[in-house]
Amino acid sequence: MPEAERAAATCGLDLYWDEGVTAYDFGPGHPMDPARLALTMRLVESLGLAAGPGVTVRAAPAAGDSTLRLVHTREYVDAVRRVAADPALSDRRHGLGTDDNWAFAAQHSASALIAGQSVAAAESVWRGGGHAVNFAGGLHHAMPDRASGFCVYNDAALAVARLLELGAERVAYVDLDVHHGDGVQQAFWDDPRVLTVSIHEHPATLFPETGWATESGGPGAPGSAVNLPLPAGTGDAGWLRAFHAIVPELLAAFRPQALVSQHGADTHADDPLAHLAVSLDAQRLAAESVHELAHRYADGRWVALGGGGYAVAEVVPRAWTHLVGTAAGRPVDPATETPQEWRAEVHRLTRQQAPLRMTDGADPVWRDFHDDGYDPGDRLDQAILATRRAVFPHHGLLP
């Protein structure tokens, strides 16, 4: 067994969880239903992962103002507090009280709590090595001075910023959400210490309408932003082909000292807000690949975050439970039946029928870009090559 795989099989995990994160609740009818978080933790517990060997469940305090200002402006943090104090207010200049980002009383406190878990996760892996998961995090759209796309504070960017503050010289961020990781890209656009990689649905068909291959970093950091926009309808084979055509080579060249990844479950075929056709089984394989790459290129320092995902009962809890199992070195067998007590909780919270197994029944396979070559008539391969041409030469790689 390769050294990286041996290390992955014996790694420890800090799992960050506080029931208070479920107060991140825009209200009835909003797609960002906090039940998806509660149901994920209940599934993690029901399958015995939270009490497994090497797993420590931790709760961190909310991020304070000085931490939030690693990414966000003082004016913006004050605006979030002001709107939270009176949710009848709106502050559209700061993206608060909009069609996407409804105002609610816990807007500051719950957002800061989620951010605190991700920042603590970053501190944990930097100081102690190993892995940390905060599946409540991954709120990657928030900008320094405004909320965006259901995201108030950008915990993913804050985790990266905290790693830099602690002394990291190279941090890689890999975003697998169906939406472009625009807020994290913006935060580090001109910082050569950070490599941001986002694989997402094409901006012509999905919010936030950014993430073109030509977006490749500021003048002080050319090639530091990597964007691979995928055609709508891309399924398992194309999604995994795209990941493996881009991510491993870039991480090998960049040699990050820590890896932060975002695992939005909204790439799934059943997600109501997007147009990819990825299975739970492919999402699991991608998480396993990120895990292995963290050991191979980042000395095992891995912070894994959640993100989007709006199939609240059908997809999100299973996807992130697989993520937790992978990070703990105890991957969940896809054939595993979901526990009866968890199915009852799904019905109680959502009035939906729970999925019966930890799989969609898919067996994803993909053609390797390097072994099988480039098809000039294939839109996916055109997208892969456009991204490689835009950024690979900046890293000394051939496109």
UniProtKB/TrEMBL annotation:
InterPro entries: AcuC, HDACs, His_deacetylse_dom, His_deacetylse_dom_sf, Ureohydrolase_dom_sf. SUPFAM superfamilies: Arginase/deacetylase. Transmembrane segments: none annotated. Keywords: Acetoin catabolism. Pfam families: Hist_deacetyl (PF00850). Pathway: Ketone degradation; acetoin degradation. Residues 30-325 form the Histone deacetylase domain. Belongs to the histone deacetylase family. This is Acetoin utilization protein AcuC.
